[in-house]
Amino acid sequence: MTIQPEFSLRAASAGTDHLQVWRPILTSSLETLRMLAGATEREFLQIGARMQEIHQQAFDLSGTAQQLVEVASGERLQSLIHRLREILSEMDKYLGQAQSLSETSCATLNSVGDLLKEVGTPLLGVKRMCKHLYILEVSIKIESTHIGEMGGEFINLAIDIKKLSQLIKEKVNAILELRALLTTSINKNNFHIKTVKAQQDAKAETTLGNTSESLAELEEVKGHFSRLGSLISTISIENTGNISTIVQSMQFHDIYRQQVEHVVEAIEGLLPAFAALQTSDAPTEDNQCQTLIGMVGDVCELQQAQLQFASSELYSAVVAIVRNLQLIGSKQKQMAKDIFEQTGTLDASGTSFIDEVSSQMTSLAALLGSCADSNAEVAGIMRNVTGTVGEITGFVTDIEGIGRDIMQIALNARIKAASTGREGASLSVLAEEIGQLSNEAVDCTDLITKTLAEIDSTTHQLSAEVNSSEENLTVRLTGMKDELVSILSVLDKMGDELLALLSQVKNQVAFLSSEIETLTGGIDVHERTKALADAVLISLKKIFSEARQLHPASEAFKEDLRLMAKRYTMESERRIHESIASRHGVGPAKVQAKTTVPPVNDTEFGDNVDLF
Description:
Elements: H1 5-73, H2 75-144, H3 151-268, H4 271-279, H5 282-343, E1 346-347, E2 350-351, H6 352-419, H7 425-522, H8 525-550, H9 555-564, H10 571-583, H11 608-611
Antiparallel strand pairs: 1-2
Helix pairs in contact: 1-2, 1-3, 1-5, 1-7, 1-8, 2-3, 2-6, 2-7, 3-5, 3-6, 5-7, 5-8, 5-10, 6-7, 9-10
């Protein structure tokens, strides 16, 4: 169809008007695009520098956390726990022995008390003998008056018997007094030993239970820290992944800058055509105007898509940087939280689970020391019992000797009485009775001596056991105390080291979090660049829309789209180009094997197409 001259002039005039409007818009857009191409470099360099610092801080924090885990769950702590359990077992054994010895001591004291009661009956027999001797002594004096001069010798015998019976009486009284004192002492000490034993048993049960629980808690905490080591390793790996994502995102800055520069070059390629149109002759102005409108539409359509993609990719990359930085910070905070949850309540003296073990083991050592003191006390009681029994035995031996002396006197009296004839018959009977009483006294002392010997044997045997136990326990306790002091000193140092590392972790987390928050809070380059790019995109879209209304896409442009899509080196850019080609109904060109790449068309896009 032939275009009427009036219509053609109106179209040319409208096209010229649009071109006059588009030129300042494109010029202004170029200024914005040039600013976009250079504005982000400095900020991304600053982000990169800060990223190096944050990466180092995160690495240092992971190192501190691993060091803390090693202190709280390493082989050194495991060996200490193992040795503490061995000491606990040994202490339990010695406590059992001490408790058994206390029970034996109580039983022995009860037995001694019962044996002392048995001594009472023969002692009363000896005491009654003393009374009979006193009566016989008086009878001898009376009968001796009937035999004249020979009676004087019997009176002397009677006086000797009286002295000896008095001496026996004193010995018996001394024995009775010692027996009463010893009985009182046994009852008192027996009650004391039972009371102390009951207290020690209760305390031992509580202390052993608490100590075992503390060691179990320490092992549980060690297990938690061992698992924390795996968690920290996982977090470190995840941080590495986050940092890798950040580094990849940082690379979009260069791609973005190049893409914006390509958009600038493409739009700049239109400016000479605008200038040529202004200086051209009137006859050619219509064709040049239509050609330029087509070129503007083609360039704006393609560069709008490229700028849209570049802006979107940069925005997503910066969002990814911020998100991954925040993930690093939150993971480090969670790691620190998990660590602090395992250490229990902290105070100025150290960590609770180490302090508790130290406290319980110290209490157990003190309890064992108390048992050693109790053993020493029992040994002292047994020595006192043995000493008192020895004194009683000495008195009994004296009585036995006196009894034999009286028997000798009685024998002499019978001999003398026999020599007096019938007058001394009564004296002979008295002398024989005295001899019989003396025999009974000796029999009584034999019973007492046997009983005392049994007491002496029992107390000596127990004293030997107590002394041996006391000696062994004292020696072993001294060794265990020294070893405990050494172990608890190491635990205290580990507690101090743990506190220092916890404080370091806390400070590192706080600093790292602050750095990340400061950095992420200051990153707004994606928002600013997006706002600037959106303004340019609005302009390009408006120009593209108006241009396409005046001049639809030419077949040459469509063919260029089909051919140029093969020369893209970046998949994303190829997809953009193919999307535009598809919008115009152009399918992708088939790539033939072993074909050469055709030369770049001398179009308005120039070499920019290769860069995309």
